[in-house]
Structures are given as structure tokens and as C-alpha cells.
Specification:
Elements: E1 23-25, E2 31-35, E3 45-46, E4 53-54, E5 59-62, E6 71-72, E7 77-86, E8 92-100, H1 123-132, H2 145-148, E9 159-163, H3 173-196, E10 201-206, H4 210-220, E11 226-231, H5 240-248, E12 263-267, H6 268-280, E13 286-292, E14 300-305, H7 310-316, E15 324-329, E16 336-337, E17 351-356, H8 357-360, H9 373-377, H10 384-392, H11 396-401, H12 412-416, H13 423-444
Parallel strand pairs: 1-14, 9-10, 9-12, 10-11, 13-17
Antiparallel strand pairs: 2-8, 3-5, 4-7, 5-6, 7-8, 13-14, 15-16, 15-17
Helix pairs in contact: 1-3, 3-4, 3-6, 10-13
Length: 445
């Protein structure tokens, strides 16, 4: 029997419309808008000024603090200004604007595709190169990778787990990346193992991707300590805690770090980026993005330069369909509606979903009927109906006691609610408020 996580979960329609579409290089934009906060933690600090000429791969902003990440230019040209731009959240955020001139790369980046398997660097040197390259988790959370690879001294890593699940409906970027770059990913996994000094790695792939399982298993057979683990299809299996549970049968306690189970989890796209950074000296300035939707003319997977406007990607798929109701950054479960198609892509942009009006329309909100479906599907064992009511009534102190900070914002509760209650919206609001309360308390100490 295939493995899966033990608590909750749902089965939304997969809608993998862009599956097996080859990765196409998106056109270089005429102007790139590179946000300074593309990761969890402190935004990066600009180290360029208006009028400076930068190349592809030039560091344009430096990490500020332990939990932060450097930012590199994805284009070559002149910095036109450092200003604010509305990002995917709908708020104005600082960014570097670059007018593109040609496509000149930094000389240190090795651009040939010859596989480089061996690495003589030490664990510390690998982590330093990963930090210099500005690599973050590409599964969505965008946690700086070097931080995950340097756990607190009280914790000991026992294995690396690679998240190749891609359980979010519609998205196919990771699947196609495995089909086209399996061996580079294997080298990246080996580098991550060396960085955290473990001799075992597991690659979790759901069994709706049999071709990826077959190919990755074949490739893993020539690499020491790497095992591909086929998983039962169930959302949100790509959640860090759920994936650890599915593969190792270890539970992350409430409030504890995932490393407490001995596992260091990284996305499969991150493993590929680690390969390119360590073996090819290539910073993270581009990634694979799925652009999809039922009314879209050509759902596709693109290799996209960071800072490319989303409108350009939509145009490359045939343009905005007339019946578009919402444009979602990410997938339908955890993604968020965008305020504009001019929002620039960032390191965490895994997909763009164009929902038609029928799909986008929310059902009429009704009174909770106490059916407890939301409780049954919550992968964290929470009571979403209660958390939603507490958030609606601004009882954030009680929300903290009811473990709102354990919520992973997967949307399973809202997906299954027959009363169409906006449970995810309430949980997100409450989690943000409680998080601010906790930070304020800690600041007073």
C-alpha cells in the first residue's frame, strides 16, 4: 500500500492541463522589476543605484540578517530606478527597475549543459555558495535555503527529504522539471546531503506522475543513498509536516521545527537550483512557472526570468480569455487572486492560474451546520469552524490558545465546507493577527 500522511486531507480535481508540455524559455522582458522581498525574513538591501549597468547574474541586493536572501539581476541593462511596485499581495513593495539592453551574462556562470557530477567542496563551502546564489525554497514558502541547511546545534539532521509531490491542482512545473532534468536534480540532492552531512535522502512523488517516478528511480539507482518514494495522491501532501509524516512516520509536534524529526525538507526545484549554483556558479534568477487555465488557449510551462510581468506570460499562452473571472498567483487551493497582470514574477512564482467566471464565483455563504467536515480534513488536527468563528469575532487571544499558528493555510477546510464558509480567509486573518501579537510580546522581553 502506498504511503501518505495520517491526518486529514482532500482530493480536489487534479486538472493538470499543462502536463507534459515542454519547458519553453519565456522571452526576456523589455523591463524587469525585481522585488527586494522575495523570501521569508528581512528584505534584501540594494547594492546598486540608478544608472548602474548590470549583467544577468549580477548581485543587485544583499541579504540583511540571518534569515534573508540575496537578489540577483535576471537581465542585463541599466538600473532605471529603485522604487515601489504593487506585488502579488496587492501592497506596494520596494523593487529595482532595470531597462533591458541585450542579454549579457556574468562571466563566472557556466552556461553549457554538460552534467557536472563530482564536487570537491566541503559542506561549509557548499552552503556558502547556496547563500551567495540567493537560493530559497521554491515550493512556495521561499525560506532561505542556507538557513535550513544550518539547523540549531541542538538538532541533528538524519535525512534529506525532497518534495516532488506537486499536489496543488493545475501546477505541473515540478513534474516537467523532473522529466527534463532528472540527473541534475540527483546531483543537487547529493549536494544537499553533503551540506547537512547525511547519507540518506528520500524523494517523495505522488503516483499520478508514473513517468517521473520511473525516470527518477532509474536515475537514483546510480547515486548512493537516494531513494524514490511513490506516494498516494492526497492534498496537501506537499506540506512539509505532511511529507515528513508520509515518508518517515514521524510527527512534528505543535510549535516544533521540522528538523526536530531529523528531516531537512527541500523542494525538487530547489535541488535543481542548488545544482546550478554549486556546479555552474548560477544564481537563482529564473525558474519554471506553469501558466494554465481551462479557457486558456495554450497551457504551458515556461522558464521565466524573475521580474517578468505576468501579462507577458499570459500573452505567450494566447492572451487573456474573455471569460476570465480571476487570475491566481499559484494554484487554486493556496494561491491568491492578483490585483493586476503587471505584477512581476518572483522566486516563489510556481504558477499562474486563469479561472473562468464559473470557477471563480464563490457560493453563497450560509450558516455553519456543525457537520465537522472541516475538522475531518484538517491535516493539522485543528477545528477550522471554531477558528473561523473566533477570527470573525476578533477573539485572537483564544485563537492563539486553539493553535492557529499550526495552520498551514492549505484551504482543505474551505474546500470541503458545504456552507461555503470562507474558513481559509478567516484563518489567514487570525494567523496574521496572532503572529503580530507574538512578535510584539517577544520584542518587549
Amino acid at each position: 500500500m502506498l504511503k501518505t500522511f495520517s491526518i486529514g486531507g482532500v482530493h480536489p480535481h487534479e486538472n493538470k492541463l499543462s502536463a507534459h508540455q515542454p519547458i519553453l524559455a519565456a522571452a526576456v522582458p523589455p523591463k524587469a522589476v525585481i522585488l527586494l522581498g522575495q523570501h521569508i525574513g528581512a528584505p534584501a538591501k540594494p547594492i546598486v543605484a540608478k544608472g548602474d549597468y548590470v549583467k544577468v547574474g549580477t548581485k543587485v541586493a544583499e541579504s540583511m540578517g540571518f534569515v534573508s536572501a540575496s537578489i540577483h539581476s535576471s537581465v542585463s541593462g541599466k538600473v532605471s530606478k529603485i522604487d515601489t511596485v504593487v506585488d502579488a499581495s496587492g501592497y506596494a513593495k520596494p523593487a529595482i527597475f532595470i531597462d533591458v539592453e541585450g542579454d549579457e551574462w556574468e562571466e563566472k556562470i557556466v552556461r553549457d549543459t554538460t552534467l557536472v557530477r563530482e564536487c570537491a567542496l566541503s559542506a561549509e563551502e557548499i552552503i556558502r555558495k547556496i547563500a551567495d546564489a540567493g537560493i530559497v525554497g521554491l515550493g512556495g514558502a521561499c525560506f532561505p535555503t542556507q538557513v535550513k541547511l544550518t539547523p540549531p546545534p541542538s538538532f541533528k539532521a538524519e535525512c534529506v527529504i525532497i518534495n516532488a509531490v506537486e499536489c496543488e491542482p493545475y501546477l505541473t512545473a515540478d513534474h516537467q522539471l523532473m522529466l527534463e532534468h532528472a540527473e541534475e536534480i540527483m546531483v543537487g540532492v547529493s549536494l544537499l546531503m553533503k551540506a547537512v552531512q547525511v547519507n540518506k535522502a528520500f524523494i517523495g512523488i505522488e503516483n499520478n506522475k508514473p513517468d517521473a517516478i520511473e525516470l527518477m528511480t532509474k536515475m537514483a539507482s546510480t547515486y548512493s543513498g537516494i531513494e524514490v518514494v511513490p506516494l498516494q495522491v492526497k492534498y496537501p501532501q506537499g506540506g512539509e509536516k505532511q511529507l515528513i509524516d508520509a515518508i518517515t512516520r514521524r510527527q512534528v509536534a505543535s510549535g516544533a521545527l521540522p528538523i526536530s524529526t531529523g528531516a531537512v525538507v527541500q523542494n525538487v526545484g530547489t535541488a535543481f537550483a542548488v545544482y546550478e549554483a554549486v556546479q555552474k556558479n548560477k544564481p537563482l534568477f529564473e525558474r519554471v512557472v506553469t501558466v494554465t487555465g481551462k479557457s486558456l488557449e495554450k497551457p504551458s510551462n515556461f522558464l521565466v526570468r524573475v521580474g517578468t510581468p505576468i501579462s507577458q506570460l499570459v500573452d505567450a499562452c494566447g492572451g487573456l480569455p474573455e471569460d476570465t473571472g480571476k487570475v491566481i498567483g499559484g494554484g487554486p487551493m493556496m494561491g491568491r487572486a492578483l490585483v493586476s497582470l503587471e505584477v512581476p514574477t518572483v522566486k516563489g512564482t510556481s504558477g499562474i492560474l486563469l479561472m473562468n467566471r464559473k470557477e471563480a464565483k464563490r457560493g453563497e455563504v450560509q450558516t455553519c451546520i456543525r457537520c465537522a467536515k472541516c475538522v475531518g480534513v484538517c491535516p493539522m488536527g485543528l477545528e477550522p469552524y471554531l477558528l473561523g468563528a473566533l477570527s470573525e469575532n476578533t477573539d485572537f487571544e483564544r485563537m492563539e490558545k486553539e493553535r492557529i499558528m499550526d495552520c498551514i493555510e492549505c484551504g482543505s477546510c474551505q474546500f470541503t465546507c458545504p456552507a461555503n464558509r470562507p474558513l481559509l480567509d478567516y484563518c489567514r486573518l487570525g494567523k496574521a493577527k496572532v503572529g503580530a501579537m507574538i512578535r510584539a510580546r517577544q520584542a518587549k522581553k
